[in-house]
Design a protein that fits this description.
Length: 76
């Protein structure tokens, strides 16, 4: 099934969050902090976006995206 750009971005960010937790658990390395520590408020913004992506991913288990499900008149 074809995914819209928003769904691809949400899936990517949720995957980055999962990868980050894997690295924290096994390598004691925080990928987000390592990449964005030089950017003021960068880490907090990244974690906010990853958290929102996680929530959207959970919601998508119950309700599908109108763009991806092919509903008429949505997401042109």
């Amino acid at each position: 099934m074809k995914k819209c750009v928003v769904c691809k971005l949400v899936t990517f960010l949720a995957g980055v969050g999962a990868l980050n937790w894997l690295l924290v658990s096994y390598a004691n390395m925080n990928l987000v902090t390592a990449l964005l520590s030089g950017i003021p408020h960068g880490v907090k913004a990244a974690y906010t976006l990853i958290g929102i992506s996680g929530l959207i991913t959970i919601i998508s288990l119950i309700k599908s995206c109108p763009c991806c499900s092919g509903e008429k008149g949505s997401c042109k």
